Amino acid sequence: MLTADELPEYRNAKGIVVATGNLTIADYMASISHSFDMGDVNKDGFLQPAEWGVAPSLNK
Predict the structure, then answer these.
(1) Diameter of the chain by CA atoms?
(2) How many CB atoms lie within 10 A of CB 31?
(3) What is the pLDDT of residues 15-41, one digit of tens each?
(4) Which of 32, 45, 54, 60 is positioned for an S-S bond with 39, CB 3.0–4.6 A?
(5) Which of 56, 37, 57 is nearest to 47 (CA)?
(6) Sign of the C-alpha dihedral, residues 5, 47, 54, 28?
(7) Is 26 exposed, middle or buried (0-12, 13-18, 19+ CB in 10 A)?
């Protein structure tokens, strides 16, 4: 189980950091989509094993 201070920061669709306790499903999906897009270096719509570690670190 993770506490709120252990979770990464999330950004809404406008790129504004959202407090973890105030995260909507839309904000969460926008953040995940952004991370996926940043991690998908070759833009093929899939994350290859070499791309897996990239996405979370780019969500800043």
Answers:
(1) 34
(2) 21
(3) 777 776 666 778 778 878 888 888 898
(4) 54
(5) 37
(6) negative
(7) exposed
| 60: DSSP letter | -
- Among candidate residues 38, 25, 23, 57, the one with its CA nearest the CA of residue 10: 23
Q: Are 36 and 16 in contact (CB under 8 A)?
A: no
pTM across the whole model: 0.56
In angstroms, rounded to a whole number, what is the distance separating the alpha carbons of residues 48 and 36? 11
For the chain, the 3-state helix, strand and coil shares in percent, each to the nearest 5, are 45, 5, 45
| CA–CA separation, 57 and 60 (whole Å) | 7
> What's the length of the chain?
60
